Amino acid sequence: MTQRILVTGSAGRLGRAAVAALVARGHFVVGLDLKPTPGLPESQSVVSTLLDTHRLSTAMTGIDCLIHLAATPDDAHFPRPAPPHDADNFESELVPNNVVGAYQVLEAARKAGVPRLVLASTGQVVDGHLDDGNIPVVASAAYKPRYLYACSKVFLEALGQVYAANHGMKVLAVRLGWCPRDAGQVAEIRASTDDQDVYLSPGDAGRFFVAAAETPAAKLPPFAPVYVTSRPVRHLLYDLEPVKKLVGFEPQEQWPTGVEEF
Ligand SMILES: NC(=O)c1ccc[n+]([C@@H]2O[C@H](COP(=O)([O-])OP(=O)(O)OC[C@H]3O[C@@H](n4cnc5c(N)ncnc54)[C@H](O)[C@@H]3O)[C@@H](O)[C@H]2O)c1
User: Fold this and answer.
1) Which top CATH class is 4-247?
2) Is 108 in the pocket of ligand 1 (CB under 6 A)?
3) 41: Cβ–Cβ under 8 A, 6 or more apart, which residues?
4) DSSP assignment of 177-237
5) pLDDT for residue 85 is more than 70
6) Predicted confidence band at 16 (pLDDT cuts at 50, 70, 90)?
């Protein structure tokens, strides 16, 4: 059945993959981003910040499924420099976009009665388990965030749990693998076999978002965290069984499929 789906961050790397896959399935997709969304007519491309609550709530009207991707992603280099050069973009970007913005999005969804939310989290919320060698990391593993960006995603997941528990929404927190945003990130992944194991192709990302939107509500618990990557090249670092069980998603691609555009 055709759904009305709102994708925030729709002009970004993963947003474009989600929009293309959902449109190809015949869904009515509305995008919301700071810039126009490629692949959508102007009438379905809302150009707005998450912090504009009026535009956000208008975009949320009548939505069956929200895919919330808009955020400041992690483009920091690791290992981080020692203080005082490790300030990161916490106050200037992560707090307004990933913390306050996330709250505004979930509030707008609650007020509009959106029944399903897919929230873009990251494997970085459990990064410490990879360092400890506890692999594949299971979905129930305690948080061991990598740094401040990962902390902002722990907050997003916690918000998702709270709204699922109190407002009857189905919430999937998807801990996404690494879908590179530029040629520099492609080069980083090429140089690291661990990174190749957590690579996420745009094609697999699009298939996941379709599966997350189309799975019947009765099959979903109120809240679940799931990992989504493409097929690992060497080692399975994140447990991909829950996403298969919950929404029937199995990755079809593997590094480096999908990086051609860089
Ligand atoms: N790409 C990855 O490897 C990866 C991995 C894990 C998690 N994620 C998460 O997935 C989501 C999408 O990541 P991406 O790689 O597509 O990033 P991206 O930077 O390509 O896209 C993010 C989009 O969000 C928009 N945006 C940012 N702040 C906004 C605001 N305040 N209001 C409206 N729009 C805003 C930007 O304009 C951009 O188009 C993010 O939440 C990111 O943290 C990405």
Assistant:
1) alpha beta
2) no
3) none
4) -B---SHHHHHHHHT-HHHHHTB--HHHHHHHHHHHHHS-GGGS-SEEEEEE--B-SS---
5) no
6) very high
Q: Is 179 near ligand 1, meaning CB less than 6 Å away? A: yes
- Note the pLDDT tens digit of each residue in 138-185: 999 999 999 899 999 999 999 999 999 999 999 999 999 999 999 999
* First-to-last C-alpha distance (Å) of the chain: 35
Is the CB of 120 within 6 Å of ligand 1? yes
Per-domain boundaries in the chain: 4-247
Cβ-contact 43, 91 below 8 angstroms: no
Token pair 């709270």 is at which residue?
Answer: 162
Q: What is the pTM of this model?
A: 0.97
Output the six-digit token pair for 250.
Answer: 């199995």
Helix, strand, or coil (residue 68): strand
Q: How many other CB atoms sit within 10 Å of the CB of residue 250? A: 13
The closest alpha carbon to 178, from 233, 97, 131, 138, belongs to 233
Task: Lowest mean pLDDT of 70-84, 164-178, 246-260, name the range.
Answer: 70-84
